[in-house]
């Protein structure tokens, strides 16, 4: 059994506060309509009528009943199923190849958890890879205390090891609520052949799958002027190259990789978004909540 996060550690406490502040600021920057679009229980059916009382929404008034019977009633609905969301964070060493990329991934995940909490949606968290004392899997629940556990888990993890996305998708697919939202925050720096077929486990749950691919433009654009040595934090041989001579080729390869990941997600009826490490989270969430595909800078 994984040891719980030591929330009393000063560094974790400070990190939780920082994540909480950034999440609140991002949500405050979104329009009301965008904030409401995160609602998952949109598949509803009519339940019954009830007499109108002060405070009920006028949009739910049944004007035909008013015309026929001269009384105010409102329509009531019930969700066909309880939806909920599962947040999957890739905490592998590759995602921590730059501090900006890691911080953006953590902040995005925390902000989405905060948004779902405000909408009273049950939220589950699954952390793939990572180092440090951290709860790696939390079941889908509601409430402030559960949100605190999510933030504590995010604050206590550091990038490390491999994510093993294929196994993660199969595990999450077996646990996720049918027709819920599954959001994967990752750089997807594993060969698509290792994880693409496992996306079927998510598609079989009829889930709203959203892949948020985090990247750092300094890496993908090879924004360096002097020769450098590249290495993978997850192993493999080092490579020395001239960034000026190789910049165009590396940029083209990055675009091909983004397109490959996007194609695998789309084939399972998912939505793929790109999240640059230094991009505005407010703008990023605007596209994410509207289901828009991201684009590389």
Question: How is this structure best described in words?
Answer:
The chain is α/β, with parallel strands linked by helices and about 300 residues long. It folds into two domains: about 10-35 and about 80-290, 3-Layer(aba) Sandwich (Rossmann fold); about 45-80, no CATH class. About 40% of the residues lie in helices and about 20% in strands. It is built from eleven helices and ten strands. The chain has helices at about 10-30, 30-35, 65-70, 100-120, 145-155, 165-175, 190-195, 200-205, 215-220, 245-265, 280-290, and strands at about 45-50, 75-80, 85-90, 125-130, 135-140, 180-185, 210-215, 230, 240, 270-275. The strands form three sheets. Strands 5-4-3-6-7-10 form a six-stranded mixed sheet, with helices on both faces. A two-stranded antiparallel sheet has the order 1-2. The chain has a two-stranded antiparallel ribbon with strand order 8-9. Strand 4 and strand 5 (about 135-140) form a beta hairpin. The longest helix is centred in the last third of the chain and has 25 residues, at about 245-265. The radius of gyration is 22 Å and the shape is globular.
